[in-house]
Each structure stands twice: as structure tokens, then as C-alpha cells.
Amino acid sequence: MQDEWKATQTLTLVAGARYDLNTFIHAAVSPRVALLYRPAQDHTFRLGFSVAYRPPTLTENYYDARVQIILPPPIPSPPILVTHGSTNLSPEQIESYEVGYQGWYIKHRLSIRANVFYNHLSDLILPTIPQPIQGGSADIYGGEAGFEFLATRWLTGFANYSYQEIGQTLAADARRGGPRFKWNAGLRGDWDNGLSGEIGYHHVGAATYPIGQAFISFAPFGVTAPNPRVGSYDLLNIRGAYKFWQQKAEAGYMRDAEVAISAFNALNDTHKEHPLGDTIGSLVLGWLTLKL
Hints:
Radius of gyration: 25 Å
Order of helices and strands: EEEEHEEEEEEEEEEEHEEEE
Mean pLDDT: 89
Strand content: over 45%
Number of strands: 19
Number of helices: 2
Distance between the termini: 38 Å
Strand order of the largest sheet: 1-2-3-4-7-8-11-12-13-14-17-18-19
Structural class: mainly beta
Largest sheet: 13 strands, antiparallel
């Protein structure tokens, strides 16, 4: 449920709560509250707080497996690795704090947004052997800023930049990982003759991710652990389209047909998003879209 109270002409309070009842855990209430301050038209400051929960997955509760690597003689095979879930886990919790601003300029042709945030995660579920345990915490904080603009009737664009830091008490493969910064920029054109096109450029910074304990356990037996560091990468995505048919339906909406071609990672900057992930290269796709 949620309610909104307009205290003054410039101050609004929005508060709500979510109630979750899960078969395997106790009921959880997730509150959220936001204070909106509008000192002038088209300018809004926001202060927000919320609490949310992540219940254990079925795998974390009930997973049961036996794993063994068989090596050729005379090398001795390692012992059987037994793992299983735990039904004594509680939900993970996250407390979120946010301060933000949004403003419109140049007769609503330019929109600017900026936010800073702080998230505290607690009661984290750690994927240990032989079963997961509860404990540890993490703090994720940072900010984001960006803008959107209408250059002409047919040309729009955007750009944004985000930065985050992760502080945590977790160890080994229970640690959280992620890039510190990302930035994105793009343009989109849409013409009356049916042609449209867009281009987006994305840069993702380098990141270090935890590697599973199994790689370390089986290292003496010839199992090689991947490099935990993923380098930075750039994505250039391009799309061009032509809407070759339009017709107004009796119900009032427009029927149309469009042919398009898109190129993902057009510069073919081969990269991985995670040490255990696939190597990503360029991809070109053709589209035929009908709306009837």
C-alpha cells in the first residue's frame, strides 16, 4: 500500500509498505518513504529510504549434489565433494538511501538528472561448502548523473555516467564484484519519410570478480582457475530502419511494417562480462516487424 501527502505547495511526502509472506521464511515488511521538494517549477529534489528482502532460493535451501573429478592413473583422484542446501536461512536485507535531483531547461528541451546512493546489505547468504551459511555484509555507494535533450524535432540524444564503490566483510567467492564506473551516450533520429536510426556508445570499466572455491580446491589436480579480472570494454551499437507501410486501423491505431538492420558491438571489441562468461564479439541482425 502507498499514500501521498502534500504538506505544502513545495513539499510532498510519499510513504508505502510491501508485505511478503513466504512458505519457508517468516513474513517480511518492506517500508519505503520519499520526500519531494519542488522549490520552483520543473525542478525537483528527492530524498528516499527503503528496505527490501531477498528470500533464499530453492537451490540455497534444498540443493544436494556430489561432485568428483576422476583423473587418469597414476594420479590420485580428489575425494568426493558433497554440497547441500540449508533450510535455516533467513532473507537477505538491503537498506537503500538516495538523494536526487531532476530539472528541465530550455523549454523542456533539456532534462538533467543526478543521484547519489548508499546501499547496506546484511545477512548475506554465503555459498560455502558443505552448505551455505548466513553472515557478512556489504556496502555499495556511488552516484549517477546524466541528461537527455531534444536537438530538433527529429533528433534526440542522451548521456550519463555512473560510479560505485563496494565495501564488504565477505571473503573468497562470497565477495561481490562489479565495475566501478560506466558511461553511455547516444543519438536517435526519426524522420517523416519513414527512416530512423540510432547509435549508442557504452564504456564499462574493469572489474574483479570472485572465483569459486572449487577452482582452488582442485588446483593441485590440474584444474586452472580463470583470471578473476575482467578488463574494460567498449560497445558501439548501431541500428537503421525504414518504415515502408503505414495504415490507420478502424480502431484508431496505426498499422505499420518496418525493416531494420542492427549491429551489436560494431567495433568487435571482444570481451567478457564475467571471468566464467562467454567471449562476446560483434553481432549483426536483420528485422522485419509487422504491427497489425
